[in-house]
Amino acid sequence: MLAACAQSSVVTRNSGFLASRQASLPHDRTASFVTPARVATARHTPFVHHKAAAGTQMASQGLASFYTEGSRTASGEKFDTHELTAAHPTLPFGTKLRVTNVATGRSVTVRVNDRGPYVPGRVVDVSYSAAQSLGMVGKGVANVKLDVVQ
Fold first, then answer.
1. pLDDT tens column, 81-108
2. In terms of CB atoms within 10 Å, which of 1, 15, 80, 94 comes out highest?
3. What is the pLDDT of residue 69?
């Protein structure tokens, strides 16, 4: 854990001005701190073999969200909220994932065709249609288990 950010000023005889070295935050932004109660946790263990399910691999477990906007996916396809698709940060495009809502036991098989999520603590973004199947539209997020099926 970073205990503190140090700042130092450097003045040289030849420069004639004061140069400041500091943490690389844009000048129009301020640092924000998150209390431990608001930090989302995720256990991400990519491609660990899941012994209970022959022929499948457990990709990860953590928080899932869904998205409804976008014209093109990272794979180049046109985004369609009615298809059962997902965004995953590392799995190859075309990978089939079984996404299981841990709280309800409901699951859906999706195809990875995009990259994301870009929110810390989340392991997958699913399409609106997949979110409906999982019963997570109302809350917006759900704790899920991901299994690679193909």
1. 999 999 999 999 999 999 999 999 999 9
2. 80
3. 85
- Reported as a pLDDT band with limits 50, 70 and 90, residue 142 is very high
State how far the alpha carbon of 92 is from the alpha carbons of 26, 66, 73, 119, 132, in Å.
Answer: 34, 19, 13, 20, 24
Mean pLDDT for the chain? 74
